[in-house]
Automatic annotation (TrEMBL), chain A:
Identification of the protein by name: Cytochrome c oxidase subunit 2
Organism name: Algibacter mikhailovii
InterPro entries: CcO_II, CcO_II-like_C, Cupredoxin, Cyt_c_oxidase_su2_TM_dom, Cyt_c_oxidase_su2_TM_sf
Membrane-related topology note: Multi-pass membrane protein
Cofactor: how bound: Binds a copper A center.
GO cellular component: plasma membrane
UniProtKB/TrEMBL annotation, chain B:
Protein family (similarity comment): Belongs to the heme-copper respiratory oxidase family.
Lineage: Bacteria, Pseudomonadati, Bacteroidota, Flavobacteriia, Flavobacteriales
UniProt keyword annotation of Disulfide bond present: no
UniProt-recorded name of the protein: Cytochrome-c oxidase
The species this protein was found in: Algibacter mikhailovii
Annotated Cytochrome oxidase subunit I profile domain residues: 22-586
GO biological process terms, semicolon-separated: aerobic respiration; electron transport coupled proton transport; respiratory electron transport chain
GO terms for cellular component: membrane
Transmembrane segments: 39-61, 88-118, 139-165, 185-210, 222-250, 283-304, 316-336, 348-373, 385-407, 419-445, 457-480, 500-523
Length: 357, 597
């Protein structure tokens, strides 16, 4: 059905284009102008006006995009300690970009309109001006210097892991096409592991070294629970191909590389429950559920199940192409109070008790 | 024939005519003008395939659940009952990217215009080696054919993304496309690189050795500067991709472990040990980043030339333009790490690459301001080529500005590999370079084919393309900032993104219209080759040497002696002259100063 519609629309577009050609041709025949293939004064004028029209279009699409899709919860609702600094830097960069974009696009299109060619007019022979060029070299230098300093400071703060605040160590383990989390247990030290030690029959699915004392109390889960306010240090591992652990709400991402352990640390600041209560999130969830109700109608008509109601959860997404089901490689993240976390972790099985003998 | 093609550089040889058969004239031609046309036509065909692929995967993203008869018709077994397979989605994206970057905008753009313009604009009878030039084209043709053949492989074409990161690309059990499909991809690219190297060496040698009398380096048109520097970047960086490809072939076929280590897949441990995928990323992006400048610099050269000629004004800041080309070229070789901020590379290296990357914004800004100033107080002739040049500056600015965000490692964490990136690189590299290529085609079509393109079709082509380009890629920034990853076959497993579905529909509609509009151009192009209005010798009243050659192509370019050059290429509307352009061949008047800034 869509395909048919698409084809029909495309055919209409072709017809419309054909009509436009005829209109152009007619307009030129009336003016008695030549058809040599070189622009005439009339062409210059028409395209000059179109340039201004196009400037309007660029501004319009910018405004529409900002108004309709500019409430980016992922850009303003960060849930980690370093999140607000990143968002702040993002906002500053965006303001600079929008300013430069607005001004330069105006100059470009306005000049194209203002100086459209006319017979007999002579252009200004203006080949060089060192002062001007110095100005527009130095201004970007200053602006960029500011951005570089701010950016690098932020980056170093994010990537520098402070072992002294005793972070909770969690392994994120990626495989085609799902995630596992491994908690270090009471000793907060992850046991040694290598994919060569994987023994599916004994349920040693992450390849832990069974002889390593540190591994005994490790806990492997399929959901990621984090206590709020406690620094976490993730150690990433992959057993097959590259994956990327993307946790957009926490402004966190790191690739998982086979044969190598990568790391990323942050401190979650908002529990899942609190995040669900923020007005922005409630608005977003309402909007999404409206869409889901709408999308369920045809399903119900076909006698299928309607879509489930959506409730907000933090997510860990795979963000590095990893094969067929890359588009569905996700894990739920739950940020909760320390007590809730303690209760949850107590219920999970320790490695030594999860092995099948 | 070959012995004599090599001597075409010399003045005394031009009178010598030799028999040309159909085969030596149109197929195994050693004439740079014919080779340029061959590149253009091959690039165009590849472009059509690449665009069709993008239209298909855009339809999939917009209407993921619905069966589509087009898929069934075009993809056959990969779309049973019209439902696209997830692997083939990735394959389409991969081959689309590969074709667009390498086959259209590297070979199609550089191959066409370096070949056409280098000898004509520097005043040479042909390339330094016509034979190597011919070999270069045919290697390109061969690699195109192999890339197309790879689409029909049983287990599917390469699908690991155009960046083919191992281990995904190395292990057939990780993905169907990593079997024979990837082998053919690698073979095709290896041949492509050989072709590109031969071409580049030829361009460099020709520019250095075969300039006519008076054509000093500071009198060269900016096109030639751009092609020259591009060729040098290619010579420096393509061999590194070649070695990456060779090492990957070794890992795949001969059991070495350059990029692989500690892998457990489908129930078994593989023997690989000690290699690192991050090493591959370094090698890949050591070419991959310069590659985007290999794509964009020639477009910048073409646009500078066309803007000056159609503004009837000298290009503003000629020397600064050359300096910024050189600065961009240099910096482009030391920024590759900005693709790897979160690859697991040492964060300190990330800081260094942030620094070098943001530096590139400076020469880029200089170029943009110089183009805008070139328009100021001009007498703008709004030919289709000029429209595409202005469009180029517009998309280059829009796309370039978001580079400030992506180049900033702290911000890249959150938008890396999202649609924000897709928006950024399509505007700044894909669309901009495509505009540069279109501008070049509209401008030099009379030189290539002796006929004019229909300008009204050109106007329609430009305006509809311009609207669609923004319509497709501008909203993508916003879905990217909302966290939507790229290379997802469908987003319906993430209710979180449900409210972005309508944006994806809008994007796809613009993409489909934009794709169909290209038919206008193709029609114009192929019809005008045979039925276009006959061109005059210098239709745009330009100063450069190519317009002093006769409309009918002849071997050796000029029937008589090669003209000598007496001034730079940008004497438009120079005070003291009656006409608004003074060709480079006109000697300075008594007391006239040669302004060369
Ligand atoms: C007809 C206009 C085009 C449309 C609608 C289009 C659309 C797209 C989209 C939506 C993607 C991202 C898919 C994904 O990541 O899931 C993509 C990927 C890509 N496109 Fe285009 N594109 C167009 C033209 C171009 C051009 C002119 C270039 C030249 C540079 C280009 C180069 C690429 C590359 C390099 C990729 C990345 C492929 C990958 O992820 O491996 N595209 N295209
Ligand atoms: Cu993935
Ligand atoms: Cu890059």
């Amino acid at each position: 059905m869509t395909a048919l519609l698409t084809i029909i629309v495309l055919v209409f577009i072709l017809i419309a284009i054909w009509q436009m050609v005829k209109i152009f041709d007619l307009a030129q025949a009336k003016g008695g102008s030549d058809t040599s293939g070189v622009a005439t004064d009339k062409d210059n004028t028409m395209n000059g006006y179109l340039m201004m029209g196009f400037l309007g279009f660029i501004y319009a699409i910018t405004i529409v995009s900002l108004v309709k899709w500019g409430d980016l919860p992922l850009m303003s609702n960060s849930a980690s300690e370093h999140g607000p600094t990143v968002d702040n830097l993002m906002v500053i960069s965006m303001v600079i970009i929008f300013f430069v974009q607005t001004v330069t696009q105006f100059l470009l299109h306005y000049f194209a309109f203002k100086y459209k060619g006319e017979k007999g007019k002579k252009a200004l022979f203006f080949a060089d001006n060192n002062k001007l060029e110095a100005i527009w070299t130095i201004i970007p230098v200053i602006v960029l210097a500011g951005l570089i300093i701010y950016g690098l400071n932020t980056w170093i703060n994010i990537m520098g892991v402070d072992e002294s605040d005793d972070p909770l160590v969690v392994e994120l383990y990626a495989q085609q096409f799902n995630w596992k989390a491994r908690y270090a247990g009471a000793d907060n030290t992850l046991g040694k592991a290598n994919v060569r030690l994987i023994d599916i029959d004994r349920a040693n699915i992450l390849g832990l070294d069974e002889a390593d004392p540190n591994a005994q109390d490790d806990i492997i889960t399929t959901e990621l629970h984090l206590p709020v306010g406690k620094p976490v240090l993730f150690k990433m591992r992959s057993q097959d191909v590259l994956h990327s652990a993307y946790m957009p709400h926490f402004r966190a991402q790191m690739n998982c590389v086979p044969g190598m352990i990568t790391q990323f640390g942050f401190t979650p600041t908002v529990t899942t429950a609190d995040m669900r209560l923020t007005p922005e999130m409630q608005e977003k969830v309402t909007r999404i559920n409206k869409i889901r109700v709408e999308n369920s109608k045809p399903l119900v008509a076909k006698g299928e199940e309607p879509l489930e109601r959506y409730e907000f959860d933090y997510l860990l997404l795979c963000n590095k192409i990893c094969g067929k089901s890359h588009y569905n490689m996700q894990m739920k993240i739950v940020v909760e109070t320390q007590e809730e976390y303690d209760a949850w972790i107590k219920e999970q099985k320790e490695f030594k008790n999860s092995l099948i003998n | 024939m070959s012995a004599h093609a090599d001597t075409h550089g010399h003045d005394d040889d031009h009178g010598h005519h030799h028999k040309e058969t159909f085969v030596t004239k149109y197929i195994f031609s050693q004439d740079h003008k014919m080779i340029a046309k061959q590149y253009l036509v091959t690039g165009t065909i590849m472009g059509v395939i690449g665009v069709l692929m993008s239209m298909m995967f855009r339809m999939q993203i917009a209407w993921p659940e619905e069966p589509n008869v087009l898929f069934e018709a075009l993809l056959g077994k990969w779309a049973p009952d019209g439902v696209m397979d997830a692997d083939i989605y990735l394959a389409l994206v991969t081959i689309h990217g590969t074709i667009m970057v390498f086959f259209v905008l590297t070979a199609g753009l550089s191959g066409t215009f370096s070949n056409l313009l280098i000898p004509l604009q520097i005043g040479a009878r042909d390339m330094a080696s016509g034979f190597l030039n011919m070999v270069s084209y045919w290697l390109f043709f061969l690699s195109s054919v192999i890339m197309i053949i790879s689409l029909f492989v049983e287990a599917g074409p390469a699908a690991a993304g155009w960046t083919i990161y191992p281990p995904l690309s190395a292990l057939p059990m990780a993905q169907g496309g990593s079997g024979m499909g990837m082998t053919l991809w690698l073979v095709s690219m290896a041949i492509f690189i050989a072709s590109s190297l031969l071409g580049s060496l030829n361009y460099v040698v020709t520019v250095i050795n075969l300039r006519t009398k008076g054509m000093s380096m500071t009198r060269l048109p900016l096109t030639i500067w751009a092609f020259f520097v591009t060729a040098i970047i290619g010579i420096i960086s393509f061999p590194v991709l070649l070695s990456a490809a060779l090492l990957l072939i070794m890992d795949r076929s001969f059991g070495t472990s350059f990029f692989l280590s500690d892998i457990f897949i489908q129930g078994e441990v593989l023997h690989y040990q000690g290699g690192s995928p991050v090493l591959f990323e370094h090698l890949f992006w050591f070419l991959g980043h310069p590659e985007v400048y290999i794509v964009i610099l020639p477009a910048m050269g073409l646009v500078s030339e066309i803007m000056a000629s159609n503004s009837r004004k000298p290009i503003f800041g000629y020397r600064a333009m050359i300096a910024s080309i050189l600065a961009i070229a240099f910096l482009s070789t030391i920024v590759w790490g900005h693709h790897m901020f979160i690859s697991g590379m040492n964060p300190f290296l990330g800081s260094v690459f942030t620094f070098t990357t943001l530096l590139i914004a400076i020469p880029s800004a200089v170029k943009a301001f110089n183009w805008i100033t070139t328009l100021w107080k001009g007498n703008l002739q709004m030919n289709p080529a000029m429209l595409f040049s202005i469009g180029f500056v517009s998309t280059f600015i829009t796309g370039g500005l978001t580079g400030i965000i992506l180049g900033d490692s702290a911000l890249d964490i959150n938008v890396h590999d999202t649609y924000f990136v897709v928006a950024h690189f399509h505007l700044v590299m894909g669309i901009s370079a495509l505009y540069g290529m279109f501008a070049g085609i509209y401008h030099w079509f009379p030189k290539m084919f002796g006929r004019m393109l229909n300008k009204n079709l050109g106007y329609i082509h430009f305006w509809l393309t311009a609207v669609c380009a923004y319509g497709v890629f501008f909203p993508m920034h916003f879905i990217g900032m909302a966290g939507l990853p790229r290379r997802y076959y469908t987003n319906s497993n993430f209710p979180l993104f449900d409210d972005l579905a309508n944006v994806n529909v809008i994007i796809t509609i613009f993409a489909l219209i934009g794709g169909v509009v290209q038919i206008v151009y193709l029609y114009n192009f192929f019809i005008s080759i045979f039925y276009g209005k006959k061109a005059v010798q210098n239709p745009w009243r330009s100063t450069t040497l190519e317009w002093t050659t006769p409309v009918e192509h002849i071997h050796g370019n000029w029937p008589g002696e090669i003209p000598h050059v007496h001034r730079w290429a940008y004497d438009y509307s120079k005070p003291g002259h009656d006409v608004d352009f003074v060709p480079q061949t006109v000697p300075l008047k008594d007391g006239e100063e040669e302004l060369q800034h």
